[in-house]
Here is the input.
Amino acid sequence: MAQGSFDYVIVGGGSAGATLAARLSEDPEITVCLLEAGGDNEGVLVRAPAGAAAILPGYAKTANWAYKTVPQPGLNGRRGYQPRGRGLGGSSAINAMLYIRGHKNDYDAWEDAGCTGWGWDDCLPYFQKAEANENGADDAHGGDGPLQVANQRSPRRVSHAFIKAATECQHRERADFNTGENEGVGFFQVTQFHDPDRRGERCSASAAYLRPIRDTRANLTILTGAQATRVITEGRRATGVAYRRRRKHHRVAARREVILCGGAFNSPQLLLLSGIGPGNEIARHAITPVHDLPGVGKNLQDHLDFIFTYRSKDRDNFGIGLSGTVALAKHVMTWRKTGDGMIASPFAEACGFLKSDPAQDRPDVQLHFVIAMLEDHARKLHLGHGYSCHVCVLRPKSRGEVRLASPDPLAAPEIDPAFLSDPRDLETLIAGAKMTRDILEAPAMDRFRDRELFGMDGALTDADWERHIRARADTVYHPVGTCKMGVDDMAVVDPALRVHGMTGLRVVDASVMPSLIGGNTNAPTIMIAERAAEMIRRGSDPQRAESTRATSSQ
Here is the structure.
């Protein structure tokens, strides 16, 4: 059954897909079809920031793919957990809303590696174009974009204490982590509505880009519950997408391009299912080959993360039990009335970007300070009140891959991050963990600290640190790189994000990042989509698009 024909067919309505669909459909002469496997993500668990505590662990599976990795030798053979957003807004509908761009050198490194037009100065205008910062526009920020970026409504007092404790350990306090320089500690800004009508609600990419226009643009068709099964090709040209919806199989034709926005796991999976990727991988599953492209699914990078967890006698944070339930009910009422209170919290309220070695040219570890006790992605709960602190390796050396577990398009992909396969990542994580514990044991935290949960409060040797890390470390949810941009033999897309060796096929999402940026990946993914939309509308050449943008703004 044919669904119809459109100029552009976009697969995936997450952070990139929602942004791209909205921007391309601004031209009334262009028709766009957006296919999304999940639902609308309009429920209260998505709109209320604290609802992520139920979705992230996989309890609300309608909004979370809840993937698992293959057993990880570096993590004592454990299978890691990989929550990914399912539905409009993708992972921006279930994440902690943290608005972080990374360091300017991360983007300049992309350009140095052959990704022309993707240096910091090239990318900054697209961060600004997306952004409606509560503090207004300036040289680094935008003031009137679709994505609302807010100051936190009411950070807990323990988060303030964490920042003070970090300064007691000689780390500088920073007010803005998104100017291109980010060393220091402070509060996150968040992708949260700050306008009066929706103040305190999550501003996912769907809420920002799609919700305001989805019922008013006749040239934009959004199909939810539509699981793409393969890219339809004629020779090496993409001509459409096959998908499954309501237990029936359909096809939709693309007159100009098919654009994959499924993310670091699902975009390479769909390419492989379509016969585009390493020849041996395709042959292993008896899929008809279309194009032998060896880099598809390779180069997987992710932020490996380790968590400290403390009980606390202070109850001005999230807790489980009678007192915590009573307090939470009060916070629900506050949020409904004013948009403030703990329901508006990202839970990860304070952050730090630190150097494990002062000789580093930029921070190589990141801290997320959380106002709750965490273990195993909140899948193991503890009674009482407390707080936690993540520490992750920002630029891991380990490289993994995404493969097909089965030729069945409804099966989950096989995910192998290869955590700690490069020993340098363990060295960095141990150094970062030591710095983190110093902060958590500093005087400013004394009044909040009761006891640490996992026996890490005594003298630890490096062997002890390694034992703890291999037993409990896992992702902090930033997989990238599996359809990497570049010009080398393992690149999947060129700097205009067109799939090498194919016509009418692009990838626009976090999978195109050639190397992992030093921070959270949602804001960079939206930036990539903003830049891609302009490239597509201006003619696919990054330099030409930039030149046109600069000329039109004069």
